[in-house]
Amino acid sequence: KPPGLLVVDDEEAVSGYAEENPVRRSGGEDLAYVIYTSGTTGRPKGVMQNQRNVINIFIATEGEFKFDEKDIWVLYHSYSFDFSVWEIWGALLYGGCLIIPEKEVILDVYKFAELCRDKQVTILNQTPRAFYNFVDVIVSNGIRFPNLRKIIFGGDKLSLDRINLWWSIAQNNTVELVNMYGITEITIHATYKKLSPDENPFIANIGRPLRSAKAYVLDFNNPGKQVPVGIPGELYIGGLGLARGYLNQPVLTAERFLENSFATEQERACGLTRLYRTGDRVRWLPGGELEYLGRTDSQIKLRGFRVEPGEIESAIGSFEGVAQSVVILRDTGEACYLVAYVVPINKKGIVDISVLKTWLSHQLPEYMVPSVIIIIDEIPLTVNGKLDQKKLPEPMVNIDKRKEQIFDTLVEKEIRLIIEDITKLNDFDDDLDFFQLGIDSLNVVKMKTKIFYKFGLDISLKLIYENFTLSSLAMCVSSLMEKENTKVSGLVKKIRL
């Protein structure tokens, strides 16, 4: 029969198929998937991972996690992010259950938390920022997870002081929190660190290498030399799990996947002769664990995704009327977003920001489209000819700089305070698009939660997205309050601050 979609719960549809397992035609070296990551040249890199590596990552972590057929996983991450490979096959390879939520549930932290509780999820995987929001919601709503066994972090740097809320409700709790470091090129994870409440919050401890991996911290200027304990260097990973390379990019593959001059005779006999140059700065801690220090290049992490600003700048540069641009990451603590500074071809040139953003949304993944675009006359440089980031204007975007803010209602005042709390910005126009302030999907969820606690309204995410300015959202909330006969003390016309 020709290939197609088979509805397996339809007995008549499957009756003509063989009852035995089909003959296996693939082997361990055959590709399992290609996942694209951001590229330094402006061209995305397709990472080719084979089937053996997917199996090996679970063999390597079997002793630490002890997954089994009783475990219930939830697919929280997009299949374009390799954390999803861990979620999908962690469930299926052990005969467990995989819950696949609707997108609306993923975007709504409260609904996602309820789903994890109601479906008795035992294994939860989260990027750090997603978990910070998750904890805020479960603490505020008293949601508990009696079946949860493990929470596994990955995809970004974990701030240990941000998970104190979890420890405050986890007394006598058997849930294990695990921090893992990994990159798509080395099959999801390479290190393991079981966390405890007494960890040093000022050290980003990513733990020890997994049994399948070998970590080398090499001198920045002399990669043939390993650095001593406590000295920063660049992290190189060897052992099992290294990808085949980058799809149709042999030169780049040769630059990042290098000959392992430290390999033992036994490793060479097993074919473990390569190292992957991660581009991450780390150092060995005295106890044999690794501390993550940041990137060695311009690559950044945003919502769990590796982003190369040069790729975004390349896309902006191909837009009509743009001479040059620079893209940076702004992090306020609560909001983390991309800002693009754009120089027109000539000073009289006009670049329509809204048109540019719409155009970029068709060229780049959603997470790579800058939240804020600012037009400037020139890119500020240091005396050495490098970007002088300190001289770039702060993204305090405002069309109307009013020293005296006037609010039609108390509702509008409270909505503004919510936005200011999330973005750490306090000088913006009432009709400015939220997303130009750096608010992303995670912040929208946080906004929904704050509106609930301030006004007692369970506003839908859809309504927030449809009313994406201060004035519009305030009117929407006021309308909902009137329908539900919700009273807010002091609701008046015209309040001056």
UniProtKB/TrEMBL annotation:
GO terms for molecular function: phosphopantetheine binding. InterPro entries: AA_adenyl_dom, ACP-like_sf, AMP-bd_C, AMP-bd_C_sf, AMP-binding, AMP-binding_CS, AMP-dep_synth/lig_dom, ANL_N_sf. GO terms for biological process: amino acid activation for nonribosomal peptide biosynthetic process; secondary metabolite biosynthetic process. Residues 406-481 form the Carrier domain. GO terms for cellular component: cytosol. Pfam families: AMP-binding (PF00501), AMP-binding_C (PF13193), PP-binding (PF00550). NCBIfam families: AA-adenyl-dom. This is Amino acid adenylation domain-containing protein.
